[in-house]
Amino acid sequence: MNTPLNLRLATTKMVLWLLVGVATSVGAVRYALGLGLTTALTDLTPWGLWIGLDVMAGVAVAAGGFVIAAAVHVFHLDRYHALLRPAVLTAFLGYTAVVLGLLVDLGRPWNIWRMMLYWQPTSALFEVGWCVMLYLTVLTLEFAPVVFEGLRWNRAFVFVRRFTLPLVVVGIALSTLHQSSLGTLLVIAPDRLHPLWYSPILPIIFLVSAIGLGLAMVTAESLASSWLFHREPEWPLLHGLTRAAAIVLGLYLALRLGDLAWRGQLRYAVEGSWASGWFIAELLVSTVVPLVLFSLPATRRSGAALASGAFLAVFGFILHRANVGGISHMARTGDAYFPAPTEFVMSFGVISAMALVFLFFVEHLKVWEHPPEKPGHFRPAAIDPISSVRIRGPWFGGVQRVALAWVLGAIAGVAIVEHEVSRRAAMRPQPVESPRAVEVARTVSPDGLLHRLTLATVHDPHDGAPGQVGGALLIDGDRQGRHVLFEHDRHQQRLGGRESCRRCHHKNFPLAVATTCSGCHRDMYSPTDTFDHQGHAAALGANESCRRCHADTRVAKTRERSTPCAECHARETFAFPVELPRSLLPQGVAPGYRAAMHGLCIPCHRVEEAVRPVRDPYLSRCPACHREASPDGDDLRLREGRVIVGER
Predict the structure, then answer these.
(1) N or C, which end of the chain is more exposed by having fewer CB within 10 Å?
(2) How far apart are CA 15 and CA 425, in angstroms?
(3) In what order do the strands lie in the sheet with 484-486?
(4) CB-CB contact of 346 with 23 (8 Å)
(5) What is the C-alpha to C-alpha distance for residues 481 and 474, in angstroms, rounded to an integer?
(6) In a domain, 204, yes or no
């Protein structure tokens, strides 16, 4: 029998499929061409929206599964049994979204399995990864009886149901471990977080907030699905959940403020900066306002107040995870980050896909075990859990709607990617800062393991000072204050004296002895055209000289068809294997400064390690040159006109 079309459900599904279509196009580009075109992440901000929303928030949102399972099976609060299956399903889909988010965010997603074979038991991330993997397995087994029941696999249903209690206990243990260990990941990185979000008790804060968020998420999910399917919400059960959530939120608020006060960091909350305003807004949305709404007397605790509190708490704690996972880092690193449109649509696409799976299970399985009685007029639902009558709309079938929404979304995704490509192709120039010459004083500890270099007399080599004063360079090409020390004299001596200069200075300006890297590679990231056509023509005899470069008069006079520059400039070119990015740059065009430096230094370091084998490759790794500042003073940093470099 046909029933009227549920416009709420049909519209929601079309929007979800539209977002999935957008994410499909963006995801294809991400996996085909890498992260560069699909994120606004940088080396200094490697964690962004995908980690904050898809991973950290996804884990926390899924906490309702173990909270309701513990309430029903451990504390025997059987009245909440009607919420158990939807909560477990939400948790299962939440953890599935975590895995999908990781597969999108990881630079080499095909290596995600490596933690199962290559153990690092002292790593917090190793513990989080194993717990997430095992708990996802437990959730699959917990929800499996619902699938077996729908398929009428009675033996499998009875078999798996025997292990319900052990699975619940294991699930609670795993959830407790990894919900807190997500905080441990950030405890070990105090230099990354603003003081308002960093705390030595972050594991406890993460666990308590996950419990509060889990209760709010179960409430929000129940209200949203009831609205979609025209069901009467389980108000008595939801009132009980929100009362428990109020207690947890109060504990969380006391922990956050008490910890800041105890450590003397509460002053940052009232300093008037963007971080303090963001912190206050986060606490108001996630805790204070929901706490007030959940604590209202029964006569004033309306459905609207309960729903507002639940959705605000969910949004607020997602914001907290985003703050801890990336936003608060900007105050420390100074690197501004705002997610690219492609990051937003990928996250929304993953969430939309999980929402569609949730709706599919609700419509085809007995996710709602005991639908409540409905007073008054009963409007037709999309699916009746009692009679199992499904909708067959009177116009434009479901498959056509899905296909149309997905195709429109895929087209929109292509447009978004094209916009990102065109925007990034027109990046603003970033001129390079020339290196500065410095004096070096080197001391070695008695055991020969620690080299301490003291640098002074910092000045610009172009200010008239003769040569390379002191034998070292202080390089900060992008003007970010993160200097790299290059010991010029030591490299020259090790590579063969002055005859080795051509190995690095592979091109020189006319009459110059050793042109600096920034002389040709004048932009940090963009290629630079170094060929002066007018100057060459004037020096070689104007129009009569054209055939020296364009010998074949039958073809167009283009850069690609001209005589290679090296044939004329052989004296200034040293044949040394320099690995540059495979960008197919035409001759006479110098790659960006960053690519040039990496292309020259890293291959040479690899050759050095091959000649003198070491246990672990070090010279070709980033920390060999790039040393971040640290509180213990062992890393490269400017201080009162001097630079101290620690262990090498």
Answers:
(1) N
(2) 31
(3) 484-486, 471-475, 436-444, 451-459, 642-645, 637-639
(4) yes
(5) 11
(6) yes
How many whole angstroms separate alpha carbon 393 and alpha carbon 383?
12
Sign of CA dihedral 568, 574, 575, 576: negative
**Residue from 241, 325, 280, 232 nearest 67 by CA:** 241
255 domain-assigned? yes
What CATH number should be reported for the domain holding residue 145?
A: 1.20.1630.10
Is position 18 within any domain? no
Among residues of the chain, what percentage have pLDDT more than 90?
24
Query: Measuring CA to CA, how many Å separate 580 from each of 551, 600, 610?
Result: 28, 8, 20
Tokens of 118: 């290559």
Number of domains in the chain: 2
Would you put residue 264 in left (φ > 0), alpha (ψ -120 to 50) or beta? left
Lowest mean pLDDT among 72-81, 129-138, 205-214, 434-443: 434-443
Structure-model confidence comparison of residues 191 and 197, the more confident one: 197
User: For the chain, what is the total number of helices (H) and then of strands (E)?
Assistant: 22, 8
Amino acid symbol at 375 = P
Three-state DSSP at 585 gives: coil
Higher pLDDT, 314 or 402: 314
Q: How far is CA 138 from CA 132, 151, 365, in A?
A: 10, 20, 20
Distance CA 328, CA 325 (A): 8
Task: Name the pTM for this structure.
Answer: 0.69
Given phi > 0 = left and psi -120 to 50 = alpha, else beta, which region is 140?
A: alpha
Token digits for 452? 């301490």
At which residue do the structure tokens 């499904």 appear? Answer: 390
Helical (H) or strand (E) element with 455: strand 451-459
Question: Which residues lie across from 155 on neighbouring strands?
Answer: none
pLDDT tens digits, 465-521 = 333 335 788 888 887 777 788 888 878 888 888 777 777 877 777 777 777 888 888
Tell me whether strands 436-444 and 471-475 are parallel, antiparallel or unpaired: antiparallel
Is residue 311, in this structure, part of any structural domain at all? yes
User: To 10 degrees, what angle do helices 202-228 and 341-364 make?
Assistant: 60
Residue 390 DSSP symbol = B
- C-alpha neighbours within 13 Å on the C-beta side of residue 212: 31
Supply the pLDDT for residue 144.
92
Do 334 and 440 fall into the same domain? no
Phi, psi of 235 (to 5 degrees): -55, -45
DSSP conformation letters of 50-116: IIIIIIIIHHHHTTHHHHHHIIIIIS--GGGGGGHHHHHHHHHHHHHHHHHHHHHH-SSGGGGGGGG
Residues 396-448 pLDDT 10s:
446 778 888 899 999 999 999 888 877 766 667 788 888 887 777 666 666 55
Residue 106 makes CB contacts below 8 A (sequence gap 6+) with 112
Task: Give the structural domain span for 286.
Answer: 39-339
Distance CA 489, CA 498 (A): 10
* Alpha-carbon span 468 to 498, nearest angstrom: 13
Read off the pLDDT of each residue in 196-201 and give the average, rounded to a whole number.
Answer: 91
What is each CA distance from 252 to 89, 198, 207, 208, 264, in whole angstroms?
Answer: 26, 15, 10, 6, 18
Query: 């090790």: which residue's tokens?
Result: 494
